[in-house]
Amino acid sequence: MKFALGYPTGVPLGGIGTGMIELRSDGRIGTVGCNNNWSAPFTETPGCFFAVGMKNFEGKEEIRLLRDGDEGAWKGMDRIRFRAEYPFAKVVYACCNPVFETELTAFCPNIPHENEDSSIPGARFEFVFRNSERKPLSLRLYLSWEHLSGCGALPDRTWRCDRTGNRIVPVSEEKWEGLVFLPGEGEKELPNAVGEYALFAEKQEKAKLSLHWWNVLEGQEGFLKAIGEGFPAPTPEGREGNCHPAGVLDFEISLDPGERLVLPVALSWYMPNHFAGGAAGMDEEMRAKLAPMHQEEEMEYGAGSERVNYGHFYENRFAGARENMAVIRRFV
Q1: Residues contacting residue 225 through CB under 8 Å, at least 6 positions apart
Q2: pLDDT in tens, 11-28
């Protein structure tokens, strides 16, 4: 993981006041700022990516990243077409060997005069596959998300991370299936960065779904090993500097000539803590600016050694990342 200030070019995805993730103009996941870390976001998360597995013209299986540019032993796409129409981001990915093209539309609701549906902590991704060949098309789609609970920045923007105890649990519902990312102990100095994620996909007859777990520290070799195995039981727990867990949705897709497949996927997060004041880094000048916006007793509480947990608006509606998912799916 790399930590940097600033926002690379792309479209932010996430409800108002919930944080965001970014789909960049090169087709990849970019800035991640959903851990209450908007002032110091992550710009490189190696466990967060989209990829496809296919046979090339020589009959060799290879993984191609859904992005512009290569990464290690994996190649990117030969061509990317990106269109930003906030709150939508639309990408066309294409490669020549083998001949392949897919479209991705990423979206998070932003509806005028509709506060609740405009403040959902999550986003949806809709992949569209078409087989324009005269023979059947078989491929695999990999969607990987790194468990980042416990990773964030202190008030002075010093980066800290503790994934200890982070777990990933497979969950299957009637029409949807996926992974829930549960927090562990986390960094005690960073309660704002401790929370849940959920990554789910709609069940499809033409897209058989398998779930995997892998250690980001093992790199691409660790990923390849994981997708050849089933989901581990019991689920391993994270340990900072030793085991950085990530979860994968692995789709086996088969399309007949001329066939089209639409595959909806939803990602959500839930970071219940939003401490501010006192030790959270609110100095006298900042407290003076914010005083008219808050009750006097709240400001006095925040000025002491203890901090005020202001929380998030979405906590009035949701109790976890899986509950967010049910609302996001209404827009899929």
Answers
A1: 214, 218
A2: 999 999 999 999 999 999
Tokens 């058989």, residue located? 208
Preceding amide of 170 cis, omega within 30 = no
How confident is the prediction for the chain on average, in pLDDT? 85
Summarised one tens digit per residue, pLDDT across range 232-256 is: 888 899 999 999 999 999 999 999 9
Q: In a 3-state reduction of DSSP, which class is residue 296?
A: helix
- Contact (CB, 8 A) for 170 and 201: no
Query: Phi/psi at 98 (nearest 5 deg)?
Result: -80, 170
DSSP bridge partners of 160:
152
CB burial of residue 186 (10 Å; 0-12, 13-18, 19+): buried
Q: How confident is residue 297, by pLDDT bands cut at 50, 70 and 90?
A: very low
- 25 — phi, psi (to 5°)? -70, -10
Q: Which residues sit opposite 265 in a β-bridge? A: 125, 201
List the alpha helices (DSSP H) in the chain: 219-227, 284-290, 296-303, 321-328
pLDDT digits (tens, 9 = 90+) for 85-109: 999 999 999 988 778 899 999 999 8
Instruction: Give dist(CA 138, CA 97) in Å, integer.
Output: 14
Q: What are the CA-CA distances from residue 137 to residues 101, 254, 302 (Å)? A: 12, 6, 60
The answer to whether 81 and 92 have CB atoms below 8 angstroms apart is yes
